[in-house]
Amino acid sequence: MNTDNITAYLERIGYRGPLDASVETLCGLHLAHLYTVPFENLDIISGRPIALSGAELFDKIVTRRRGGFCYELNGICSALLRELGFRVTMLSAEVGREAGGFSPEFDHLALRVDLDEPWLVDVGFGEGFRVPLNLTDDAEQEQDGRLYRIDPINMDGEYRVLLRRDPDGWTSQYRFTLRPRALEDFAERCRFHQTSPESHFTRGRICTLATPEGRVTLSGLRLIVTTGTERTERWLAGEAEYAAVLRQTFGVIE
């Protein structure tokens, strides 16, 4: 990624803050990414192959102003952070299931960024934390009225990201180890999510973007807007309105 590419990337996410390798910069970049680059699976639903190469990720997300899912979003974000002088490690994560247990290894890609302390970075989980979580802090970390916790599972270096939305208790978002990974390690699971009927990514269109007030989501033809604790839903009239909302709200043109 050359200087022009870095400039284009920063313009893509609307970031105009400092560029030193600091916690403040990391948090600013993380939040800017979540506000501008949607989590979406539109290529998967359309049958367009996703390639995990730096050039193709840059073309899709920066040049064509699209979004993507974890392998793409955290993959390209890691490249930017490295170019800005951050020490970045790719991590394999297993996503928590509603029925209990976790998905297979490499089901999710997250990032570790080492400054004076290590931080968990993730701009590719959909509805995840807004700014990085401190990896060494096992206390509750509050963001926008939600509580997160990084919970050591065992002595083998396995951790869980826990979320508490309400008094009912904690939910496991995903578990991970600190073993360094490379982007190509995720290729097989990336193919699974593009092709398998067992993958939730092949079952319907999703496009979602964080906003300063909450979140806006297109799930099929259903438009969902959350503002604080308020949630509204409406069904779009058809594909023409879907394309208009996709363009106007998410900046995505298929």
The quaternary structure here is single chain
Main sheet characteristics: 8 strands, antiparallel
Rg is 18 Å
In what order do the strands lie side by side in the largest sheet? 5-4-3-2-9-8-7-6
Sequence stretches where pLDDT stays below 50 over 5 or more residues: none
User: Which structural class fits the helix and strand makeup?
Assistant: alpha+beta
Helix content: 25-40%
> From N to C, what is the helix and strand string?
HHEHHHEEEEEEEEHEEEEH
Tally of helical segments: 7
Number of strands: 13
Global mean pLDDT: 94
Q: Looking at the structure, what is the overall shape?
A: globular
Report the sheet-strand fraction. Answer: 25-35%
**What distance lies between the first and last C-alpha atoms, to the nearest angstrom?**
25 Å
Structure description:
The protein has 254 residues and is α+β, with helices and mostly antiparallel strands. It has seven helices and 13 strands. It has helices at 3-12, 23-36, 42-46, 54-63, 70-83, 187-195, 239-250; strands spanning 39-40, 87-95, 108-114, 118-121, 133-134, 141-143, 146-152, 158-164, 171-177, 206-210, 214-219, 222-227, 230-235. Strands 5-4-3-2-9-8-7-6 form an eight-stranded antiparallel β-sheet, covered by helices on one side. Helix 1 (3-12) crosses helix 4 (54-63) and helix 4 (54-63) crosses helix 5 (70-83).
